[in-house]
Each structure stands twice: as C-alpha cells, then as structure tokens.
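Good morning,

Attaching, inline, the backbone tokens for the sequence recovery test we're adding to the shared suite. The designed sequence is right after.
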C-alpha cells in the first residue's frame, strides 16, 4: 500500500489530462462501500460543479428548431442494426461441437499469452469504462432539450441517444467476453469494479446543459477513438491480430460517434457562436474528465490514477493525446477564425486556442520530474494482484 501512494506523487504531476483529473482523485463516500480506513483521506475535493440546468430556458428553442437538421445530418451517422458488427463474430462460436469450441478458446489463449500484464490493465480499464454505459446514457438523457422524456421518444435527439447507447453496448460486451476467455484477468474483481463504478456515477461538469454535454461527448468519443486505436496497435505488436481487429473495430465506432457529436457542436457554433464558444471554454477550463474517473475495485482507492498512469506509460492515452484532441477540435470547429463573438466569447476563444501549447509545456516539465523518480510497482486486483511497474 505504501508503494501505491508513492506512485500517486508522480501521477499528480501530470496536468490537465483527460484521464488524470487532479481534483477527483478519489471520493470514498461516493462508492457504495468505503475502502479500508487506512487508505482513506479525510479531505474530500469538491464536485466539479454544483450547477444544474445552467442553459437559459429560452435556448431550449434552439434544440427544438434543430430537430429537422438532426434527423437529416446526425441520424444518418448511425448504422442500421443489420449492418452492424456483433461481438459474436469476433469470438469462439459456442454453437460448434464442444471440442471445436474449446479449440477456438485454446487458440485465443495462445494469442493472448504473450501480451504483457500492463496491456491487460489498460484493456480492463477500457472495458470497465465501456461497461458503465448506463451512467453515460443517464447523463445524456439529463441534458435539457435533448433528453428522452418518455423512454421511447420519437425526437431525433432521443432516437440518436438510444441507438448510440445500443451501438456502444457492444463494446463492453465484446471486450468483457474476450477478457473472460483469455484467462488472463480476475473476472470477479473486474465485475466488482463495474458494479462500484455504475453505483458511483460520474462528474463530468455538464450541468444538464446540452452545449456542455455535446462538447464533452465530442472530446470523449475522440479520446476513446485514440485509446482503442492504441490498444489495437499494441495487440498487433504483442501477437494477437484478432484482438487488434476488435479494438480497431471499436475505435471505428467511436470515430463515427465523435463525428456526430462534433457536428452538433459545429452547428451550435453556427447558430449561437458565443454560446457554443463559452461552452467549449467552460469545459476546457474544468478539464475533460474521463468517464470512469470514479472507478474502484474495493481495494485500491487510487485505482483510477493507477490505471491512468499505466495508460500514460504504455502510450495508450497520454497528456499529449489530450492536447492533440484539443488541437484537432479547434481545427475541426475552426475556432481560431470564429467571428461574431461578444467580448466574453472572444476571451473564451483566446483561452481555448492558446491552451494546447500550455498543456504540452506543463507535460514536458512533469515528464522531466517523473524521469528523476525511481520506477515503482503497483498491484492491480484485475490481474490477480500482479505488479505493474510505473
Ligand atoms: Fe465505446
Ligand atoms: Fe464512445
């Protein structure tokens, strides 16, 4: 346990990253059961925001008036179910005679046997993040003007959210089954982590405000595109081309979703440039928090930080990726050239457009400090308490 706390010292030096929020290290009271007393800090950081329903009610009209646009421009980015991949196509076929099925499982285990433990830590963290999907659907449905008010609402916003959720649902299912069959991970600890995480929720700071919500999802979908793309590359390098294809296929979904959410923000920038620019500035000031930042396995109160540190070290998701995503979105939304802003809007524009180089500079300094520290090990329950060096 002592070693684990040393680890966090170096992790905390990483600034402004999507998956390393300094303000939300752990809030034991938000887990269903507290971690052991010896590991609990007594000062709990404040929530990211206590604001709710922060969009002025008159702006609800904007989302109503964009319904036709959403039907024509956003819904086509969904894939009809019949054209979608399903997890089963990537997995051993249980309908085969038993011997043939187990042969396929043996082949799978053979492919995964040389992947390092640290790879599994990242893949489990990604899977757990995907599995907390009920939290994300609730978050989106809590956004004013775009939520599914009856559960089967015909509004294009609600149609999108339900179908998006249904597409996303395959990600956790596929990763979970693959991890289960690999035999490399402790499924019970993973399942516990998922249960804790869904119980804990998330604190993205989106204030039931669809402007903030869609900025968050644009950023977050691109971040998952980047990280699944990197786990695909590492699986290939580690000798598992099927897992590489799985992660790559999931990454492609994330890219399509990113495209939809950033299209919505692009539209908001067109119809309400200052409102949308302020929302981007607000979210970037708060820092985009990884959706699974409240993860806990019943053992390690710093589980999220430890997972994020492994993601950073293996290059699956790093502070530089955070800066890259920001730059990508600035370019995609043409924020530097955005006109018609109020003074307040211009200040947000300057802040956002100057942020990426600042993040990179801070990261370089943090990297230099981290290099001076001795490497140390952290045990992860997900891999049977094997130690991963950070
Ligand atoms: Fe996903
Ligand atoms: Fe996603």
């Amino acid at each position: 346990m002592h070693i684990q706390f040393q680890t966090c010292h170096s992790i905390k030096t990483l600034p402004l990253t999507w998956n390393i929020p300094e303000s939300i290290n752990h809030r034991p009271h938000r887990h269903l059961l507290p971690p052991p007393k010896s590991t609990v800090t007594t000062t709990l950081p404040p929530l990211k925001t206590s604001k709710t329903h922060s969009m002025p009610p008159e702006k609800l009209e904007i989302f109503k008036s964009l319904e036709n646009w959403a039907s024509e421009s956003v819904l086509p980015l969904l894939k009809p179910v019949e054209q979608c991949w399903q997890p089963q196509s990537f997995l051993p076929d249980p309908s085969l005679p038993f011997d043939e099925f187990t042969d396929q499982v043996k082949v799978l285990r053979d492919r995964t046997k040389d992947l390092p433990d640290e790879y599994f830590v990242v893949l489990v963290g990604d899977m757990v993040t995907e599995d907390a999907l009920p939290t994300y659907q609730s978050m989106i449905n809590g956004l004013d003007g775009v939520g599914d008010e009856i559960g089967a609402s015909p509004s294009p916003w609600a149609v999108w959210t339900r179908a998006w959720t249904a597409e996303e649902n395959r990600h956790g299912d596929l990763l979970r089954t693959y991890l289960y069959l690999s035999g490399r991970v402790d499924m019970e600890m993973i399942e516990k982590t998922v249960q804790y995480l869904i119980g804990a929720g998330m604190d993205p700071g989106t204030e039931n405000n669809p402007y903030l919500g869609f900025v968050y999802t644009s950023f977050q979908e691109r971040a998952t595109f980047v990280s699944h793309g990197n786990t695909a590359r590492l699986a290939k390098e580690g000798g598992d081309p099927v897992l590489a294809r799985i992660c790559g296929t999931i990454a492609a979904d994330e890219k399509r979703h990113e495209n939809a959410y950033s299209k919505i923000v692009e539209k908001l920038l067109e119809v309400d440039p200052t409102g949308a620019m302020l929302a981007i500035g607000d979210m970037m000031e708060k820092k985009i928090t990884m959706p699974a930042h409240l993860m806990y396995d019943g053992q390690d109160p710093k589980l999220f930080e430890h997972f994020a540190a492994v993601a950073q070290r293996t290059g699956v998701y790093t502070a530089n990726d955070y800066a890259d995503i920001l730059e990508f979105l600035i370019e995609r939304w043409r924020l530097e050239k955005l006109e018609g802003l109020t003074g307040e809007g211009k200040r947000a524009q300057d802040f956002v457009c100057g942020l990426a180089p600042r993040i990179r500079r801070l990261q370089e300094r943090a990297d230099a400090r981290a290099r001076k520290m001795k490497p140390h090990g952290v045990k992860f329950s997900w891999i049977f308490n094997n130690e991963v060096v950070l």
